[in-house]
Every structure is written in structure tokens, then in C-alpha cells.
Design brief:
This protein is an alpha/beta fold. The protein is built from 13 helices and 18 strands. Helix 6 crosses helix 7 and helix 10 runs antiparallel to helix 12.
Length: 415
């Protein structure tokens, strides 16, 4: 399918319907199309820093929604994933198109947001149409089973910019980061291919690990900007010597960013260079080559910046695991899947009270079985299997050696 583009943006009256939509590029205005066009839309997003339906669904909020729906004109409702089941009780979903934005979070966030994601999977076909959109869609082998019959559509950009990943394999990633910081401090810049970078953006998905770097490099609060979730845990980790900034605060020579701002945030710097820092012994810092790294790439939007599409990936590796091969783990999880199917067949014959008891037990923790409220039945939770396989692939296949990571980058990204 052909999509019209101009100056790096999509030019469309509406998004494609009933599909997985790979927009390929971040920041191309795709979500804005759904917000500004003449169609009724429910836009489901993974983040909470928005105006719309999130938090507690109070009576006051419901009343405001009902009043809004009575008004004239096109209706736009923005909500987080977990609000979809409640929302459709208050609207006629057949009057609305559904856009599920950044849907790759279905895989990335499933272990701690399974109820919210399952709610979308149960109800997306209730709407007039649906569109699961991302610039970094879930790899085919890890898509939810509910997507098996859904058409895949992709934008063919004529002017797409290439990402260049510069891998840096080391046994001590934080020692290398400290050396880079010292080089910036001593010279005021570091030089890459004859170009001078005067600011560094370190993407590290762990506040604990960021604090280790700050301490090792002996950075002061005035030297750096730390962008992470502002909560008691992170404030306690950083201590009184450092404060938490936002992505809109003035940039500094050293900027540290967690996954809170890996996506949907623009940074502006004429000489900033991006560094991804991964420690294989801190699993939160390991990133997906297909989904995480392309999202981070291009976060710096200043077109004059010669490093805008370059990333230095500093990482170490480990290969210890209970499984000898990825195939061995696949076979083991396939057996678990078969056991779950047997249990589903048994639960189909339970009484109403026994089903309710089983449903409550399943809700207490991640399980290979999930409950479908619409059909009052239990089904196999294939997403739990897939996220376990995917995490294993990242930790023990991609990050097992420098060669393995570089090979994965060659498949998905230019290095």
C-alpha cells in the first residue's frame, strides 16, 4: 500500500484501518492525523503523562465524559491501555475508530502490564476499526495470537535516514563511560570522524546504575541532567546530591536518560552524541535491537547535528544460562503451553463458583492461562510464553557475545 509523505511527515486524511501499521519513522505525525482528522477516535497509549482518561475512573470523570459525548462535532478520546474495558461501557465503540499507539509495548511491558494489555486484546474488535501502530512493531514470531489474521501495512519512505550503531564491547562498561566523561571534561569535547561533540546523552535504563556512574565519574549535580520517573524510590537512590530533571529542562554537558524518555521525547542539541549503556548483569539495561534502539535513535532532532543518527552502544556480555540453546528453551515452553491447554479444557467444565475462584487465583500473578470475561472462559496465555522467549533471546542470545550483538545490528540496523 502506498502512503503519501512529504518532508519527513505522513500526508493522510486518516490512518489505515484493521491492520498493524508500521510507520517506520518516529516523529512523522501519524498520531496527529488521528487527533486532528474528522473521524471519531479512541487513542490508547502506553504512557500516563497525558490529558485524558487515566488514573481512577471516578464518577466525576464519567460525568465529564458523558457531557463531552453529548456535544456536537468529532469526538477524540485519549486513554491509557487499561481504560479500554471500562471505556466501552460508556460509549458505543462502533462509533469510534481505535488507534493503539506504540503497540510494541504489548511485548515490552507485558510482564507488569498484562491486565491492561489483555483488556485491549479482548476488546479491539468491538470498535468500528482498529489500527495497531508503531515505528518499531513487534517481531512476527512474538506477535499476540490475536493478530494472526490482521493485515500488515508499512510506509515506504523514500528519504529514510540510516541509523549507524557503533558497538563498543567491554568487560567494564561503566569504566568506559567514566573515561568518556573525563575526556569531555578535559578537552571540552570528544572528536568522532573529525566532528566535535560537546554534549553527551547517556541512555541507561536503571537509576541505580546511573548513580554508580555519577559516583565513579565524580559528577556534581550542576554537571548533569537526570531524566527519570520522579518518585520516592528514584529520589532515595539518587540521594540529596542529585535532583531529577524533566526532558524539557535545559540540557547539560552530561544527560542521563531512563526508559521513561526513550520514546516520544525530542531533544535539541547541535553537538550532542548518544550513548546506550548496557550491563548484562543488570537486565533492565539490556535493549532490544529491533524495538528499543531504533526508538532511541533520532531522539536528537536538531538537523544540523552531525551525530543525530549515530549511536555508541557500550555493553558487556554473559553466556551463562540453564538452557544450552534457544531451541531447547522453546521446546520446554512448548511443553508448558501444552500443560496449559490441558488445564483450559478442564476449567471449561467447572461450576460458576469454581470458575470465579480460579479467575481470582490467576489474577494474583502471571500465568500461562488467562480469563476472558466476554466469553466467561479460560484461554491459553501465549503472550507470557512469548515474552519469556523474547527476554531469553535478548539476554542469552544477543548479549552473549560482542559478535552476536553486532550480527543482530547488521540484520536490523546499519553498523
Amino acid at each position: 500500500m502506498d502512503f503519501e509523505t512529504q518532508d519527513g511527515f505522513l500526508v493522510m486524511n486518516d490512518l489505515p484501518h484493521d491492520c498493524i501499521f508500521n510507520k517506520v519513522k518516529t516523529g512523522c505525525g501519524a498520531t496527529t492525523i488521528a487527533i486532528k482528522n474528522a473521524e471519531n477516535y479512541v487513542i490508547a497509549v502506553p504512557v500516563r503523562n497525558l490529558f485524558g482518561l487515566y488514573g481512577n475512573f471516578t464518577k466525576a470523570l464519567k460525568d465529564k465524559l458523558k457531557e463531552y459525548l453529548k456535544g456536537e462535532g468529532t469526538k477524540k478520546i485519549i486513554c491509557t491501555y487499561n481504560k479500554i474495558p471500562k471505556l466501552i461501557e460508556l460509549i458505543n465503540p462502533k462509533d469510534f475508530h481505535l488507534l493503539v499507539d506504540e503497540y510494541h509495548h504489548f511485548l515490552k511491558s507485558y510482564l507488569f502490564r498484562d491486565k491492561a494489555i489483555n483488556g485491549v486484546l479482548e476488546h479491539f474488535r468491538d470498535f468500528k476499526s482498529f489500527c495497531f501502530m508503531s515505528a518499531t512493531p513487534i517481531p512476527e514470531d512474538f506477535q499476540p495470537v490475536e493478530f494472526e489474521d490482521i493485515e500488515y501495512k508499512e510506509v515506504d519512505w523514500k528519504d529514510v535516514e540510516t541509523i549507524q550503531v557503533l558497538p563498543y564491547h567491554t568487560n567494564k562498561p561503566y569504566m568506559i563511560v567514566t573515561k568518556i566523561i573525563k575526556a569531555y571534561q578535559e578537552n571540552g569535547f570528544i572528536e568522532v570522524n573529525g566532528q566535535k561533540s560537546k554534549e553527551a546523552y547517556f541512555f541507561v535504563n536503571s537509576v541505580t546504575e546511573i548513580k554508580k556512574i555519577l559516583t565513579q565519574a565524580e559528577l556534581k549535580d550542576d554537571d548533569c541532567r537526570i531524566i527519570c520517573a520522579k518518585n520516592g524510590t528514584n529520589e532515595k537512590t539518587l540521594g540529596t546530591d542529585y535532583h531529577i530533571s524533566s526532558s524539557t529542562d535545559q540540557s547539560k554537558k552530561f544527560n542521563f536518560i531512563t526508559s521513561k524518555s526513550f520514546e516520544g521525547v525530542d531533544y535539541f542539541s547541535e553537538t550532542g552524541l548518544c550513548f546506550i549503556v548496557s550491563n548484562s548483569y543488570s537486565t533492565h539495561t539490556l535493549l532490544s535491537i529491533e524495538m528499543d534502539i531504533p526508538q532511541i535513535a533520532g531522539r536528537i532532532r536538531t538537523k544540523e547535528n552531525p551525530f543525530r543518527n549515530k549511536l555508541v552502544h557500550i555493553f558487556n556480555t554473559r553466556s551463562i544460562d540453564t538452557y544450552d540453546t534457544y531451541k531447547q528453551m522453546e521446546r520446554d515452553l512448548e511443553r508448558q503451553l501444552q500443560y496449559a491447554k490441558e488445564r483450559v479444557q478442564i476449567y471449561a467444565h467447572l461450576s460458576k463458583g469454581a470458575k470465579e475462584q480460579q479467575r481470582k487465583e490467576i489474577e494474583k500473578s502471571a500465568s500461562y492461562i488467562k480469563y476472558d470475561k466476554k466469553t466467561d472462559s479460560f484461554t491459553v496465555n501465549d503472550m507470557l510464553i512469548k515474552i519469556q522467549l523474547y527476554n531469553h533471546k535478548i539476554m542469552y542470545c544477543i548479549y552473549k557475545s560482542g559478535y552476536a550483538l553486532k550480527k543482530e545490528c547488521q540484520i536490523h540496523i546499519m553498523i
